[in-house]
Amino acid sequence: MIRKILHLDLDAFFCSVEELLDPSLKGKVFAVGGRPDGRGVVTSCSYAARLLGVCSAMPSRRAIEICPDLIFVRSDHHKYSEYSQKVMDILRDTSPIVEQVSVDEAFLDVSDMPQPIASIAMDLQKRVLNETCLPCSIGCATSKLVAKLANDFGKKQIKTGRSPQKITIVEAGDEADFLAPLDIQALWGVGPKTAHTLRSKGIITIGALAQLNDLEIKQIFGNHGESMRRRAQGIDSSPVQAEDGDPKSISNEITFLEDQDDFDNLLRILRQLSDKVGSRLRKAELAGWVVQIKIRYSDFTTLTRQISMKECSNLDQDIYNAAQELLINNLIRNRPVRLLGVGVSKLESPHKQLSLWDDRGNKKQDLTKAVDKLRERYGKDIIKRADSLKK
Question: Do the beta carbons of residue 286 and residue 350 sit within 8 Å?
Answer without folding.
Answer: yes
